[in-house]
Amino acid sequence: MKETKEIMPQLRDVKGNEAIAAFERAGAVKRKGKGDHVNLKMPNGQLITIPSSGVVKIGLLKKAIKKAGLTEKEFLNLL
To answer: Whole-prediction pTM value?
Structure first.
């Protein structure tokens, strides 16, 4: 529980382009999306959609991290 409280503030200010770059470092392949959104195909076959502009909402980011098969700590190391 304590580890989660330390990670939460770091996930709050992640910009879309930073998140996309981190997922690409984890092996994602970038695809086109609608508008400013980018689709990322992960090595596990999952498709993640992230807005490329602005700060990503924490709920969306946490779902994307889980869908990618990463832990929050692993994701933060990729940033």
So the answer is: 0.87
